[in-house]
Structures are given as structure tokens and as C-alpha cells.
Write a structure and sequence with these properties.
single chain, about 220 residues, alpha/beta, nine-stranded mixed β-sheet, two-stranded antiparallel sheet, 11 strands, binds 5-O-phosphono-beta-D-ribofuranosylamine
């Protein structure tokens, strides 16, 4: 069975969706460890309570990005994971780190990339007046919130939404598509070839369109 290491910085709800899916058998991976750059990340306690090994590599103890990334890489490699899963990991990674894990480093971002990379995606989507918003799982490249797209889920922006209600609607879809993408990787159906995603699943499963009354794809 393939193993994954999950990197978090905060509450870890996407991490929970992966741990739960691995526990109930719908995601055929072993969660080898959860690593955080923040000792106070809430998700660390949740992971430990679920019986998952946790480690902290505190970025404040390192004088520059490269030395932190080297320490984090060392902590990751101690578990020899097949895939490194960024789940709300709030650190910009050096090119060296990204290159080291090329093709086995994925991220989830709360927008339909390439729209709205960076922070405050839900408020920015509201400010732009978009009708459709969503989330994206992608392989990580040196460019922030950029990289070959694996799967996306789109949700409507509804009259009266604020950043909180919109974030909740998107987050529910994050919790669907991240375990899905990791499962595809674990089953050998997802790989990166010459910088492009090769996905051996029916094409319609790589997007979710969540209408107010209906949903499609992403099974
Ligand atoms: C999610 O919205 C994810 O897309 C983004 O950071 C947030 C992390 O939330 N990268 P959580 O810690 O998984 O609850």
C-alpha cells in the first residue's frame, strides 16, 4: 500500500478528510505522518488522537527558507512517503524543495485556479462578482498556487453570500476532491508526465459541478 505524509499549518480539516477516508477503507493509503511548521496547529492534536504520528518542524527556528525546507525534507524523508500532501500548509516552498518532490507533491487551493492564487480567495471572488467559484487540486511547481491541475470542483456564488458562507460551500467540496485525487495517485491512475497530468479515470470524474439543486461528477 502506498504511503502519504500530510503537511499542515492549521485546523487540518482536509487532513481529517484524508485520515478518515484512509480509516474507512475508501482511500487505499497509509497516512505515515502529519507534519506541521507550527507547534500550535490544531490539526496536530486531531491527528495524534486518530493514532497518526505527528512531527513539528518549527519554521521560526530557522534563519532562512532553504534551511527550513531542508529540515522539513529530512522529516518527510524519514517516512519515505510515495506522496507528499499539502493540506493548508502556509509556507512558500523553495524551488529546491519542490524539485526534490517533483511529481509526488500535491496541494489543494480554495479557488478555481488559475483564478485567485494566494490568500483571501473567497473575498476576492466576491469582490470580482464571479458566479462560479471552487477549489483545485494540483501538482506543486515553484510558482505559488500554480501547477498541473488534477481535479476541480465548482460551486455557485449565491446572492447574500459572504466570505464565510462561500468558504464553507467550497470547503465541503475540498473534502470530496482531495481524497479522490490521492486515491487516483495511490491506484496508479494519476501521474505527472513531462509536466502534464496523465489521468486514467473517466474525464467527467475530474470535475465536479455543484449546482444549487444538483451535483455531478467526482464519484
Ligand atoms: C483550505 O481551504 C485549503 O484549500 C487551503 O487552506 C485551507 C486549509 O484548511 N490550502 P484546513 O486546514 O484543511 O481546514
Amino acid at each position: 500500500m502506498k504511503s502519504i505524509v500530510i503537511l499542515i499549518s492549521g485546523r487540518g480539516s482536509n487532513m481529517v478528510s484524508l485520515i478518515n477516508a484512509a480509516a474507512d477503507g475508501s482511500l487505499p493509503v497509509r497516512v505515515a505522518a502529519v507534519l506541521s511548521n507550527r507547534p500550535d496547529a490544531k490539526g496536530l492534536q486531531i491527528a495524534a488522537a486518530a493514532g497518526v504520528v505527528t512531527r513539528v518542524v518549527d519554521h521560526t527556528l530557522y534563519s532562512n527558507r532553504e534551511s527550513f525546507d531542508a529540515a522539513m525534507a529530512g522529516a518527510i524523508d524519514a517516512f519515505s512517503p510515495d506522496l507528499v500532501v499539502l493540506a493548508g500548509f502556509m509556507r512558500i516552498l523553495s524551488d529546491g524543495f519542490v524539485t526534490r518532490y517533483a511529481g509526488r507533491l500535491i496541494n489543494i487551493h480554495p479557488s478555481l485556479l488559475p483564478s485567485f492564487p494566494g490568500l483571501h480567495t473567497h473575498q476576492r471572488a466576491l469582490d470580482e462578482g464571479v458566479r462560479i467559484h471552487g477549489c483545485t487540486v494540483h501538482f506543486v511547481t515553484p510558482a505559488l498556487d500554480h501547477g498541473p491541475i488534477v481535479v476541480q470542483a465548482a460551486v455557485p456564488v449565491i446572492d447574500g453570500d459572504d466570505a464565510t458562507t462561500l468558504a464553507a460551500r467550497v470547503l465541503a467540496q475540498e473534502h470530496r476532491i482531495y481524497p479522490l485525487a490521492v486515491r487516483w495517485f495511490a491506484e496508479g491512475r494519476l501521474r505527472l508526465v513531462d509536466g502534464r497530468v496523465v489521468l486514467d479515470v473517466p474525464q467527467e470524474r475530474a470535475f465536479c459541478l455543484i449546482a444549487p439543486q444538483a451535483s455531478g461528477g467526482c464519484q
